[in-house]
Amino acid sequence: MALYEYRCPAGHTTEIFHGVHETPAVRCGICGAQSDRVLTPPMIHTQYYFSPQVHGARRPRHRPERPGETSS
Predict the structure, then answer these.
(1) Please, are residues 55 and 39 in contact by the beta-carbon 8 Å criterion?
(2) DSSP string, 4-40
(3) I need a surface site. Which of 30, 32, 35, 42 has the fewest CB within 10 A?
(4) How far apart are CA 43 and CA 40, in angstroms?
(5) Assigned CATH for 1-40
(6) CA–CA gap between residue 68 and residue 72 (Å, rounded)
(7) DSSP H/E element including 2
(8) What pLDDT does 20 receive?
(9) What are phi and psi of 55, to 5 degrees?
(10) Residues 56 and 62 sit within 8 Å (Cβ to Cβ)
(11) First to last CA, the chain
């Protein structure tokens, strides 16, 4: 089962929950006109998404100075 969006010629949209292989005749709930299915891109989620706001920004590690080095 999936959620599909339908739009009538007047521009009213309706979301219908039905099976993948079903092709229901959908009428607009506002004007009663025949509605056509709207093609929308699928949502794609990857497990490699990194957000600094979620995971915290990386902070540089403090490195101790070596003997003979001076701070500038």
Answers:
(1) no
(2) EEEE-TT--EEEEEE-TT-----B-TTT--B-EEPP-
(3) 42
(4) 9
(5) 2.20.28.270
(6) 13
(7) strand 2-7
(8) 85
(9) -95, -5
(10) no
(11) 65
The domain limits of the chain are 1-40
Chain centroid, CA 48 distance in Å: 15
Neighbouring CB atoms inside 10 A of 28's CB total 18
The whole-model pTM stands at 0.55
Better pLDDT: 51 or 18: 18
Residue 52 has φ and ψ, to the nearest 5°, of -60, -30
Least confident of 26-35, 37-46, 49-58: 49-58
Tokens of 39: 């093609």
